[in-house]
Write a structure and sequence with these properties.
Rossmann fold
Length: 424
């Protein structure tokens, strides 16, 4: 990768690595380009929060941009990026046509985070109390997301299940996809030292409350699972941590039941490594789960669902217990927690399995170099690559025109409203 590379990342939100797996992943992508001495700019139309990382201190320039505003055109034309990374497909829809018009030769990378259409389809099925059907994956959201993948030169996919879905079900060309899982913060071969079984107590739940699957899991845990656990383990508490807890989540706090909603954790690692178990009763979702990788890194076995462990362990045994997905799995989940919490030998075995999973499936010194090589290859053969995928070129021509006209209409409408306000 050439050292003078000019990279623009357009963020759906400002990175919060201590709040979500998405924030942690974004920092991994930034680190790839920083290691190659690239000139980096991170731009977003979102509001910055108290949890946002200070990118300027890392040598990454930042810019506040506006949706549906032609000021972005002048911004990107001046920047002249060699690489543009879109954070989630919504961002590609909003800014892709402007990038296309101003710097057509830039390599376009879409970081999907997870497949939103898969998560949405599973959520719809759950709300209707039925299994996921083929039609759930043909939603308008799916059409938009897959179109964005076709329009980009490379899309980063976090889950091997989603890789197979995109190629086998949606018919996306494999050459447009690149598998980049979550990456462990532990160095390969480093000796991991964890607190013992006896030094730990209580259960922990981690997850950003703005993520719908996390909120559903906490609610389901409180209403259907935790009372069963507490009945058998009356002194054990469940500590719920996550950024941005809404009032409805805070209302679940119940000291008598030992269900304690703690809010944002200043030091998530410290919290997780003191817990005996990590709980993640996810009933829908997609992608890989950062909280479960973090639990393995802390030597904390976990109990989760099939959708929770999806694409994280392959054929290897899980670091804890995986409960088969069903409409109601509260009894099985509670029984697994009660047993694993009390059985030291099973707990130690689960801990060892987590260490094996980290070493085999989440090593950054394996996956980041492969990503760097893929970027370099595309930069050297971008036109040839694009000419091999006519569907992508066609969608860029037609779809981006529709986004362009809609955006320009919104911008014009806003200007007319401001003029009308001034006249009055």
């Amino acid at each position: 990768m050439k050292t003078c590379l000019n990279v623009l990342i357009i963020g759906y939100v400002w990175p919060e690595p201590n709040s979500s797996a998405a924030g942690r992943r974004m920092m991994d992508l930034i680190s790839v380009f920083l290691r190659r001495s690239a000139n980096m700019t991170f731009a977003s139309a979102a509001q910055r929060s108290e949890h946002s990382v200070n990118l300027d201190e890392m040598g990454v320039a930042t810019a506040d941009i506006t949706l549906n505003c032609s000021t972005f055109d002048a911004f990107v034309e001046k920047l002249k990026p060699d690489v543009v990374v879109f954070d989630r497909f919504f961002t590609e829809e909003q800014f892709g046509w402007r990038v296309e018009r101003s710097c057509q030769s830039a390599l376009r990378i879409l970081d999907t985070e997870d497949l939103h259409c898969l998560r949405h389809g599973r959520h719809q099925a759950l709300k209707q109390g039925r299994p996921v059907e083929r039609g759930d994956l043909f939603s308008e959201l799916a059409q938009r997301e897959v179109a964005a993948i076709w329009r980009c030169d490379m899309s980063l996919i976090i889950s091997d299940y989603e890789m197979e879905l995109l190629v086998g079900f949606y018919g996306v060309a494999p050459e447009l996809l690149h598998y980049l899982p979550l990456l462990s913060n532990h160095d390969d071969g480093a000796t991991l030292k964890w607190k013992s079984f006896e030094e730990r107590k209580h259960c922990v739940v981690m997850g950003n409350f703005r993520h719908a699957p996390n909120w559903d899991a906490v609610h389901y845990l409180r209403s259907e699972i935790w009372p069963k656990i507490r009945k058998k383990l009356p002194t054990v508490e469940c500590h719920i941590y996550g950024a941005y807890p809404p009032p409805k989540a805070l209302q679940l706090h119940n000291e008598k039941l030992g269900f304690l909603v703690k809010g944002w954790a200043k030091d998530a690692v410290d919290v997780v490594e003191h817990a005996r178990l990590c709980l993640a009763p996810l009933r829908f979702g997609a992608g890989q789960k950062g909280k479960l990788l973090e639990a393995m890194e802390c030597g904390t076995p976990s109990v989760t669902s099939e959708v929770g462990a999806e694409s994280m362990h392959g054929e290897m045994p899980w670091s804890g217990v995986v409960i088969p997905d069903s409409a109601v799995f509260s009894d099985e989940f509670a029984a697994a927690v009660i047993s694993l919490y009390q059985t030291e030998n099973d707990w130690l075995l689960a801990q060892e399995r987590g260490e094996s999973l980290i070493a085999s499936r989440f090593q950054r010194n394996v996956y980041l170099p492969l990503f760097e090589q893929r970027v370099e290859k595309l930069l050297n053969s971008l036109q040839t690559h694009r000419q091999c995928h006519f569907t992508g070129l066609m969608l860029r021509h037609h779809s981006l025109k529709s986004h362009q006209y809609m955006s320009q209409w919104i911008e014009l409408k806003g200007r007319l409203a401001e003029r009308s306000k001034d006249d009055s």
